[in-house]
Amino acid sequence: MSDIITMLLTDLVALAIGFFAGRALIKKTFQTKEAEAEVRANEVLRNAQQSAENLKKDKILEAKEHFLKLKAEFDEEANKRKNIIIQNEQKVKQMQQQAAQMLEQNKRRENELDTLQHKLNEQVEVANKRKEEAERMLSQQVEQLEKIANLTAEQAKQQLIDALKGEAETKASSYIKQTIEEAKLTATKESKKIIIETIQRTASEQAIENCVSVFNIESDEVKGKIIGREGRNIRALEAATGVEVIVDDTPEAIVISSFDPVRREIARLSLHRLVQDGRIHPARIEEVVGKTKKDIENEIVEIGERTVIDLGIHGLHPELIRMIGRMRFRSSYGQNLLQHSREVAKMCATMAAELGLNAKLAKRAGLLHDIGKVWHEEQELPHALLGMELAKKYKEHPEVINAIGAHHDEIEMTSMISPIVQVCDAISGSRPGARREMMESYVQRLRDLEDLALSFNGVEKCYAIQAGRELRVIVDSENVNDEIASKMSFDISQRIEKEMQYPGQIKVTVIREMRSVAYAK
């Protein structure tokens, strides 16, 4: 037991010795490292101080360089400003010298003016004295004359005036009489000369508007496609356009007949597109006709624009330009209205130039004089007054407005352009072969025939074809049944018999077509 205790004590003593020895060793090591760290810190501190000192020196040098640079720039700027100031001082000195010279010149001129004024005053005094002396001598002479003639100065003056007045009236009357006689002799000659020269310088061709158009085709095989099965294609085309399509034995040609040039043109263009496309059936015909009608409206505007450009007329309202284009498809007594208006415009400009008037205004009035004939709404006014109202609406020149309204004597003429337009309108319409009055009455009868049928309820479209021998009436299938359609044809024929005059007989055809359309989606 004692051995074990001895061993334990020995181990404890060894452990204690080792603990204290290790502690001493650790302390010594720590002190050594602490000394090394202090040495290193001192070295770092010295290095830092050295770096700071070097950096300080560098910054000082940089600051000095910057200061020297700024100083040099400042000195340069100061020198520039100094030079500018010196230049300005020199300019001021020069201006002062010039001002002093000008003052001296002004003083010299003032002295010269004073001298001249003094001389002028002296001359005025001399002139006044001479005037007073002359007036005194004149009054003495007048007194002597009054004593000799036993008349006062006023009485003598009045007698002289009366004598001169009588002589002047006699000479003036003779001169006026002579001038009037010469004017009578030359006026007719000069007016004829101006009119003849105007007509010669306006050599436009006269084309009578017909009621048919010829559509040329490449071969007679196309005729079969245009006719369609049992003529359905032709019927669809006639119903959509309101024309009569005549397919006869004429080789490679189809005749389109209608009194309305717009309908004929729509039918002709539609046929051209259908033949080019190759698909000809009723639905396609209606589609092409609808597109063609829109294209015709655009073409009307283009025709109006080309016309005003060709004539050199500017500033027209777009609606007036559209109506000018519409003239292309309107005739007056068989004479194309656009050609007639262009001719009148050119003659008006020529005649106005010969007379020394405003040729541009005259040309403008000549082009627009029949604009009332193409207004799309029904009006009770004569076309001249309607055209005048349209010109007022679109702010045309007052002289142009008066010329339009007065070219058929509906209103009083207030400018020299008005009789020129009236004369040129008469010249254009009275040329041999220019117009056919029968044509105008024929077209008017067909229009009245269509208007009569359109006055019935339920009528959608109405077309007079075959020179007015047939009236085709297309009704609304939803509002008009078969019985009403049958009765409508009878009623229309009775009204035509009572209200209209016509040769032969008129066939009234009422067409009621029922369509049912659905779409598969």
UniProtKB/TrEMBL annotation:
| NADP among keywords | no
Domain spans labelled HD? 337-430
For this UniProt record, the keywords arranged alphabetically read as follows: Cell membrane, Coiled coil, Endonuclease, Hydrolase, Membrane, Nuclease, RNA-binding
EC top class named in words: hydrolase
A Pfam family the protein falls into: KH_1
Q: Does this UniProt record's set of keywords contain Membrane?
A: yes
InterPro entries the record matches: HD/PDEase_dom (IPR003607), HD_domain (IPR006674), HDIG_dom (IPR006675), KH_dom (IPR004087), KH_dom_type_1 (IPR004088), KH_dom_type_1_sf (IPR036612), Ribonuclease_Y (IPR017705), RNase_Y_N (IPR022711)
Q: Which residues form a coiled coil?
A: 38-151
E.C. number(s) listed in UniProt:
3.1.-.-
Protein family according to the UniProt entry: Belongs to the RNase Y family.
**Biological role stated in the UniProt entry:** Endoribonuclease that initiates mRNA decay.
Entry protein name: Ribonuclease Y
Its gene is rny
